[in-house]
Amino acid sequence: MCVIFILNGPNLNMLGTRQPSLYGYETIAAIEKECHSHAAVLDLIVDFRQSNCEGELVSWIQEASRKASGLIINAGAYTHTSVALLDALLLCTQPIIEVHLSNIHAREAFRQHSYVTPTASGLIAGLGGYGYRLALTAMGELLKKKNPVESREKI
Ligand code: DQA
């Protein structure tokens, strides 16, 4: 079965109490649980992780580039700042889907640039925790394709 890494960046461990009007009341543990059950329906295995440390996320992306069939990432604030994450993501030859709980394009100008987006097959933003399940469904579809990362070869 295909293993999908789901990586979460800084402050996402605080979901549930962190600005719930923006990010909702669902905890990261609840999102993780839903991802595991949804993945089981799709015949996928999820490796779900969260870190507040940029270097740890870089190492996990490198690990994903070796072990995962696909990568779903909500890099939190590092989305908007991290060339190191971009460089690590460029190592990945497997499909990448970017997820954000909030609609980053309807927020402050600094959130509207993402270092993740150029490496991603697709982006889901603004749908809260449901976005992770949508990303898993989309990942399942991408993995059925012969060349799932075709569009990324232009970078
Ligand atoms: C976020 C959006 C980011 O701008 C923010 O820094 C986060 C969460 C989201 O899921 O909406 O930490 O990635």
Give the structural class. Answer: alpha/beta
User: What string, H for helix and E for strand, traces the elements in order?
Assistant: EHHEHEHEEH
- In terms of DSSP E residues, the strand content is 15-25%
Q: Based on the structure given, which CATH architecture is correct? A: 3-Layer(aba) Sandwich
**What oligomeric state do the depicted chains represent?**
single chain
Give the C-level CATH assignment: Alpha Beta
The radius of gyration is: 14 Å
**Overall shape:** globular
Mean pLDDT: 95
Beta strands, count: 5
CATH fold topology: Rossmann fold
Instruction: Flag low-confidence runs.
Output: none
CATH homologous superfamily placement:
Dehydroquinase, class II
The biggest beta sheet reads:
5 strands, parallel
Helix content: 25-40%
Bound molecules: 1,3,4-trihydroxy-5-OXO-cyclohexanecarboxylic acid
Distance between the termini: 29 Å
Features:
alpha/beta; binds 1,3,4-trihydroxy-5-OXO-cyclohexanecarboxylic acid; Rossmann fold; 155 residues; globular
Outline:
The chain has helices spanning about 20-25, 30-40, 55-65, 85-90, 130-145; strands at about 1-10, 45-50, 70-75, 95-100, 120-125. It is an alpha/beta fold and about 160 residues long. It has a single domain, classed as Dehydroquinase, class II (Rossmann fold), CATH 3.40.50.9100.
